[in-house]
Amino acid sequence: MRRQRSGATVFALSERARQSLRRSLLAWFDRTKRDLPWRRTHDPYRIWLSECMLQQTRVETVVPYYERFLNTLPTIDSLAAAPLQRVLKLWAGLGYYARARHLHRAAQTIVREHRGQVPKSAAELSTLPGVGKYTAAAVASIAFGEPAAAVDGNVQRVLARLFAVDLPIDAPSTRAQLWSLAEGLLDHARPGAFNEAMMELGATLCTPTTPRCSDCPLSNWCTAHRDARTAELPIRSRRAAPAACYVEAVGVRRQGRLLLIQRQPRGLFGGMWELPGIVSVAHAAEPIAAPRLVKHVLDHHRVSIDALHPIGIVTHVLTHRRMMVRVWVAAARGGRAYRGSHASVRWLAHAARSDLPISVLDRKVIDLAEGRT
C-alpha cells in the first residue's frame, strides 16, 4: 500500500491484478445482471434517456416512466418536436424537472445541429444542454463503445471501498481522484459493460449498508473488505438538514373551476402548474397570513376573493429542502385572471387538468384544496 499526498489510501494494483479484476467483474455482470429495458437496446437515444431518468432516482421508479415516455416519444425527433408541456407531463412525479427541460433542449440541439444523430463521443455529448461528465461518459461507452469511465454515486462507493479512500467522497478533489481510479480500472475492450457492471455492483451488492461482500466479485481486491472497514467507508461530509421552506397556497374557485398558475421555465419546478401562493419565513398566525395572501392574489392575478379558510398543511421533503405548504380555500368574487410574473394562468375544471405537468407536491396541495385527500 501507499498513502497518496491527498490523504487517501490506495491499494496499488498491478496490471495483471487489474486484468483479473475486470474478468471477475464482467463475468459476474454477464451472469447476474438485472433485465432492464434500456439494456435491451443499442439505441443511443433510449440509453441517454435512461441515464437522465436514473440520476438520483431508483431503478424501480424509473422503469414505468421510461416505458411510458418512449411509448409517447419513441425517437429523438419526436422528443425535439414535442411541446415542453408534454415532456414535463410525462416526467411529472420523477422530480428534478430540470432534467426534463435539459433533455428537451438537448434533443432540439441534436436535431438542429447534428442531423438528429446523437453525438458519439463523450466530448461532443458534454456540449449538449444538461449533459455532464457522467452522462456523457455513460452514453458514449454504453451506446458507442468509447473507453470513457463513468462514475456515479454507486461507483463512487465501490471505488472508495475498493481502494480505502479516506477522504469525503463528495469533496471535489476526492471526486477527481475517484475518476482517475475508475479510468485506471476501465476495461477498454468492453467499456460500456464495465461501467454498467460497476454501477450494478454498487446498486445490488456494495450497498450503503450491509454490503454483501461474500457475493462480491471484487472482494479479493477490496481493501475495505480485507481490513474490515466496509461499515466506515465511504466517508461523506456532514450534510446539513434540509432547510425548511414555508409556503401559503390558496385554492381559488369560480364556477367549479380552480385557478392554476404555471411557473416560468427555469428554477425549481420550472414550467410546472400549481396554486397561487407566497413563500414565508415561517407559517405566520392566520390573522397575519390571510391578508397577505388575499393581497397577493389581487395584486398579481387581479382576482378578488372572499374570506380565506385554512384547511391543512402538506409536507414534502426534497433533497435540500423540506416544503411545508399551508393550504387555504376561497371563492372568487370577481376579476379576470392575469398571469403576472408567471408563464400562464388558467381557470380549470378537474378533468381539464389531466394533461398538465403537476409535481407530486402540488398534486397533494391541489387534492387537499379540492377535498380529495
Percentage of residues in strands: 15-25%
* Sequence of secondary-structure elements: EEHHHHHHHHHHHHEEEEHEEEEH
Distance between the termini: 59 Å
Global outline: elongated
CATH architecture group name of the largest domain: Orthogonal Bundle
What is the CATH topology classification name of the largest domain?
A: Endonuclease III, domain 1
CATH superfamily of the largest domain: Hypothetical protein, domain 2
Per DSSP, the total helix count is 14
Task: Report on the biggest sheet.
Answer: 8 strands, mixed
Share of helix, binned? 40-55%
Q: Structural class given helices, strands, pairing?
A: alpha+beta
Q: How many domains is the backbone divided into?
A: 2
Task: Evaluate the radius of gyration.
Answer: 25 Å
Based on DSSP secondary structure assignment, what is the total number of beta strands?
A: 10
Query: What average pLDDT do the residues reach?
Result: 91
CATH class of the largest domain: Mainly Alpha
Question: Stretches where pLDDT falls below 50 for ≥5 residues?
Answer: 1-11
Descriptive account of the structure:
The protein is an alpha+beta fold and 373 residues long. The chain folds into two domains: 2-226, Hypothetical protein, domain 2 (Endonuclease III, domain 1); 243-369, Nucleoside Triphosphate Pyrophosphohydrolase. Helix content is 42%, strand content 16%. The protein contains 14 helices and ten strands. Strands 3, 4, 5, 6, 7, 8, 9 and 10 form an eight-stranded mixed beta sheet that branches. Strands 1-2 form a two-stranded antiparallel sheet. A hairpin with a 3-residue loop joins strand 8 and strand 9. The model is unreliable at 1-11 (pLDDT under 50).
